[in-house]
């Protein structure tokens, strides 16, 4: 990756903050130090990220603020760690640190670390600051922004959580150079989501640059991150608590979460789709259902399939997952109202909409193996 100057995206609303995107930010303690109001900082990371970046971030912070009391908590990498038990361990780490109400939790890692740390920050003493330092593409374009925090339970993904906007997001694009190719692809699925749900021009741009993005072109990735964050920032500023349009950001997620829950949450050594891959499959299922319901053309579904395939993302439900079981999982989605399925579908590329009371029989047809 070659150096580029940092980009800034502002998130408005009642709790404004900035997203800074650029190379080398992990080694620059100024931005992080500027977010710390009190004396206590808990750095939370996972077993994949900590050996690469935790000491660097800690040293950068302490060089600027040697007075800080800094604790560390490292959890096992993988979705299987996004649990109430791990949440409890982060809370214990805050207690051990003696963190007061002006403490700051720093989430250094992907969406798992970000969601879990953010939830702990939301709960410790009824809410302390959380700075998101995303290290996956997925976390840079989605999970670090907007303040959704949560853990999974066996019954479903993200079912226990809180809205807790970060104090800041600091995304060091150099971290993407160590990201496994599979995780880069997973992040690209969430990038595609922004084009698919509301920006046909961005979708075209992604089609044009799919190969270079996949190859890790740093300037194009930085542009994709900034454009994705700008989309998310605009939506969450208008609808922070998902009373309306924010639900569109869940395109593909009701299907995707059902797949993730039904297969068992991914962990090192366990064959399972990760979140971004499940969202890729989920977006295509949403497009297929839209075609089935006569809302959109098969041509747009085909364009989405082609882009996901160009990005080497899966587009089919993994073998062995039962349609009825997946439907059962979908019934526990947070968007549902009065026990009726409420899904994000589309009229075509860039035109997603929330559809209430979707016919379960139609959903089953797209869940059947092809
Ligand atoms: P992840 O956090 O599990 O990270 C993926 C893997 O990459 C891990 O093994 C991690 O150790 C490794 N890794 C991370 N950064 C690395 C780096 N720079 N170099 C080398 N390895 C690195 O997965 P994810 O895809 O980042 O996040 C998925 C989670 O995000 C899911 O739990 C999902 O529900 C959540 N999510 C939340 C929101 C939200 O709005 N809060 C939005 C989207 C997704
Ligand atoms: N990732 C969906 C949202 O933040 O609303």
From TrEMBL:
Compartments in which it is found? Cytoplasm
Q: What is its EC number?
A: 4.2.3.4
Give the cofactor note text.
Answer: Binds 1 divalent metal cation per subunit. Can use either Co(2+) or Zn(2+).
Any one of the GO BP annotations: amino acid biosynthetic process
Protein's UniProt keywords contain Zinc-finger: no
- Keyword Glycoprotein: yes or no? no
> Which amino acid positions bind NAD(+), per UniProt?
111-115, 135-136, 148, 157
What metabolic or biological pathway is this protein involved in? Metabolic intermediate biosynthesis; chorismate biosynthesis; chorismate from D-erythrose 4-phosphate and phosphoenolpyruvate: step 2/7
Binding of Zn(2+): at which residues? Answer: 190, 253, 275
Catalyzes what? 7-phospho-2-dehydro-3-deoxy-D-arabino-heptonate = 3-dehydroquinate + phosphate
Q: Which PANTHER family match?
A: 3-DEHYDROQUINATE SYNTHASE (PTHR43622), 3-DEHYDROQUINATE SYNTHASE, CHLOROPLASTIC (PTHR43622:SF7)
- Spell out the protein name for this chain: 3-dehydroquinate synthase
Q: Which gene encodes it?
A: aroB
């Amino acid at each position: 990756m070659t150096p580029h100057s940092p980009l800034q995206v502002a998130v408005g609303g009642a709790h404004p903050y900035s997203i800074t995107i650029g190379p080398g930010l992990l080694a620059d303690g100024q931005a992080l130090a500027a977010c710390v109001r009190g004396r206590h900082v808990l750095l939370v990371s996972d077993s994949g990220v900590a050996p690469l970046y935790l000491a660097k971030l800690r040293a950068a912070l302490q060089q600027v603020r040697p007075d800080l009391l800094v604790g560390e908590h490292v959890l096992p990498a993988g979705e299987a760690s996004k649990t109430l038990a791990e949440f409890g361990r982060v809370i214990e780490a805050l207690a051990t640190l003696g963190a007061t109400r002006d403490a700051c939790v720093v989430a250094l890692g992907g969406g798992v670390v970000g969601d879990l740390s953010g939830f702990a920050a939301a709960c410790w003493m009824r809410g302390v600051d959380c700075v998101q330092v995303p290290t996956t593409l997925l976390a840079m374009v989605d999970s670090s922004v907007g303040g959704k925090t949560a853990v999974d339970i066996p019954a479903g993904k993200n079912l226990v959580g809180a809205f807790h906007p970060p104090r800041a997001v600091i995304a060091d694009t150099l971290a993407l150079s160590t990201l496994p190719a599979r995780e880069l692809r997973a992040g690209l699925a969430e990038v595609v989501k922004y084009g698919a749900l509301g920006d046909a021009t961005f979708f075209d741009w992604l089609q044009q640059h799919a190969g270079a993005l996949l190859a890790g072109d740093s300037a194009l990735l930085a542009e994709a991150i900034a454009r994705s964050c700008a989309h998310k920032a605009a939506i969450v500023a208008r609808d922070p608590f998902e009373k309306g349009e924010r639900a569109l950001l869940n395109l593909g997620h009701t299907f995707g979460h059902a797949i993730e829950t039904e297969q068992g949450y991914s962990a090192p050594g366990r064959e399972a789709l990760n979140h971004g891959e499940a969202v890729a499959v989920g977006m295509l299922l949403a497009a297929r259902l839209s075609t089935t319901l006569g809302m959109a053309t098969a041509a747009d579904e085909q364009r989405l399939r082609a882009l996901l395939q160009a990005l080497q993302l899966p587009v089919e439900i993994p073998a062995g997952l039962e349609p009825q079981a997946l439907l059962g999982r979908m019934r526990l989605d947070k968007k549902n109202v009065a026990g009726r399925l409420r899904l994000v579908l589309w009229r075509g590329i860039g035109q997603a909409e929330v559809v209430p009371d979707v016919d379960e029989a139609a959903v089953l047809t797209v869940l059947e193996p092809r």
